[in-house]
Amino acid sequence: MELKDFLWSLIIIYAFARVMAELAARLGQSAVLGELLAGVALGGSVLNLVQATDTLKLLGEVGIILLLFEIGLESDLQSP
To answer: Which domain holds residue 43?
Structure first.
């Protein structure tokens, strides 16, 4: 994969994730849900706009770690 293709993939992923996160927030859902739906839509399951390469897979694994951290920050552990 050329650098140009890799950068376009990152731009597409970032832009679509931001749009879906904003849409989910406006619908009263967590922004994380929108980001997850963006990942499913862009991957090979639905639109197949982004091809999985080794670099994107590595960045995806780091992204999963950050996503779980973000979910942990949004969690409220106090019992009602």
So the answer is: 21-54
Residue 44 lies in a domain: yes
Tell the burial category of 17 from Cβ atoms under 10 Å away from its Cβ (0-12, 13-18, 19+).
buried
50-to-9, 24, 75 alpha-carbon distances in Å: 6, 22, 31
Predicted confidence (pLDDT) per residue in 39-69, tens digit: 899 987 888 888 888 988 998 899 889 888 8
Q: What is the pTM of this model?
A: 0.74
* Residue 29 belongs to some domain of the structure: yes
- Number of structural domains (the chain) is 1
